[in-house]
Specification:
CATH class: Alpha Beta
Radius of gyration: 13 Å
CATH architecture: 2-Layer Sandwich
Number of domains: 1
Order of helices and strands: EEEEEHHH
Distance between the termini: 37 Å
Number of helices: 3
Length: 85
């Protein structure tokens, strides 16, 4: 029996590679930024590790602002923290 390949993705804050299930995907589509829990939404996506410290660091460093080349509202970071709880 073949071993199934585990999809790996990189956290944009820590630059570490993790299995896709250990990360949260954030998507920009039509200038709207949203959190993609299914991993299948259309648009440009990036990943953050499911860790409160990583989320806080990303907010402080404005990592998502640079990734999407636009201002990301603080409510997105708050929503990310609530999902992790």
């Amino acid at each position: 029996m073949k071993n199934k390949k585990v999809p790996m993705r990189m956290c944009i804050e820590t630059k570490e590679r993790f299995p896709k299930k250990e990360l949260i995907r954030i998507v920009k589509f039509n200038d709207e930024i949203s959190i993609d829990l299914t991993g299948k939404k259309n648009g440009r996506g990036c990943y953050l590790k499911k860790d409160k410290e990583v989320i806080k660091k990303a907010k402080k460093n404005k990592t998502l602002d640079r990734a999407f080349e636009c201002k990301v509202d603080d409510s997105i970071y708050e929503e990310l923290e609530n999902i992790i709880d």
